[in-house]
From TrEMBL:
InterPro entries documented for this protein: CH_dom, CH_dom_sf, EB1_C, EB1_C_sf, MAPRE
Chain ranges of the Calponin-homology (CH) domain: 6-108
Family (UniProt): Belongs to the MAPRE family.
Low complexity compositional bias, start-end: 146-171
Main location group: cytoplasm
Ranges for domain EB1 C-terminal: 193-263
Domain of life per record: Eukaryota
Cellular localization per UniProt: Cytoplasm, Cytoskeleton
One Pfam family named in its UniProt record: EB1
Positions of the UniProt region annotated as Disordered: 146-192
Stated name of the protein: G7070 protein
Keywords on record: Cell cycle, Cell division, Cytoplasm, Cytoskeleton, Microtubule, Mitosis
Length: 299
């Protein structure tokens, strides 16, 4: 099961987009649960109630309803997979990537070598809110827009500020107070700095997310190989295996403190088995010669 979590973000997005005819650019765009619902619908048509799936979920409440539909499908299919909805709907990249990695592993395991005969666009059109709306495909983008709008309204920013700025630009200069020009110049000087600062923050955030994904993948790989080594250690301690000539050399490699110690253990192993092979060959030759010498005596 650990190999399921070695799928990269790029491979995940390519698999989702090709399977469902979408154009997702981020794994967190699957956070509403609609993509997971349709993947199960593609795998086993009829198990998901697509009429209740909302591909344009604008709030976490809508996303939670999608996960209820997904959980109902899990129950029908006998899937015993805990889903942490509270984490997934927050749109955190790591949480959504791990869930999609597991879903890809399950999907491909169930599908096997069968061809997928499925109309993803047609099925989305039968969903609660129809196909994904807007230029940016993926439900998370809709949720993000809704959240940003709510943040703007809570901050008290007037909705008509942009329109007011456009109207003021058409007013003749002689009708504008003298200090207005200075204020405009000041605002113009500050605006590029603000844009540059936002761009820097966005870049750093993206780098931080990538680093977290790499760290998470490295930790999973470390755990995977540590488990394998522990299994080998336990096997070497079994009474029926411990007496084998190879076991001491395996243990020396496992417990070596550096590469030099491990290399020496492997060299000793090769030499030991080479000598044993030579002794065995000598013994066979001696037996053959003895048999040859005894044959005339019998006659």
């Amino acid at each position: 099961m650990a190999e399921a979590y070695f799928v990269s973000k790029k491979d995940l997005l390519q698999w989702i987009n090709s399977t469902l005819s979408l154009n997702l650019t981020k794994v967190e765009q699957t956070s509403s649960g609609a993509v997971a619902c349709q993947l199960l619908d593609a795998l086993q048509p009829g198990v998901v109630n697509m009429n209740k799936v909302d591909f344009n979920a604008a709030t976490e409440y809508d996303a939670v309803n999608n996960y209820k539909v997904l959980q109902a499908a899990f129950t029908k299919m006998g899937i015993n997979k805990p889903v942490d909805v509270n984490k997934l709907v927050k749109g955190r990249p790591l949480d959504n990537m791990e869930f999609m990695q597991w879903l890809k592993f399950y999907f491909e395991g169930r599908l096997g070598c069968q061809d997928l005969d499925y109309d993803p666009v047609g099925r989305r059109q039968q969903s609660k809110s129809g196909d994904v709306k807007g230029a940016r495909t993926g439900p998370t983008s809709t949720v993000a827009v809704a959240r940003s709008s709510a943040t703007a309204s809570q901050s008290g920013t007037p909705a008509k500020s942009v329109a007011s700025a456009r109207v003021s630009s058409s007013v003749p200069k002689e009708n504008v107070p003298a200090n207005t020009g200075a204020s405009a110049r000041g605002a113009g000087a500050l605006r590029p700095k603000a844009v540059a600062g936002d761009s820097t923050v966005a870049d750093l955030t993206e780098q931080l997310i990538d680093l977290k994904l790499k760290v998470s993948t490295a930790e999973q790989e470390r755990e995977f190989y540590f488990t394998k080594l522990r299994d080998i250690e336990v096997m070497c301690q079994m009474p029926e295996v411990k007496q084998e000539r190879l076991v001491p050399f395996i243990e020396r490699v496992l417990y070596a403190e550096d590469d030099e110690g491990a290399a020496q253990a492997m060299e000793d192993c090769c030499q030991n088995f080479s000598e044993a092979s030579a002794q065995s060959a000598a013994t066979d030759n001696a037996i053959t010669n003895l048999v040859g010498q005894m044959s005339p005596l019998r006659m």
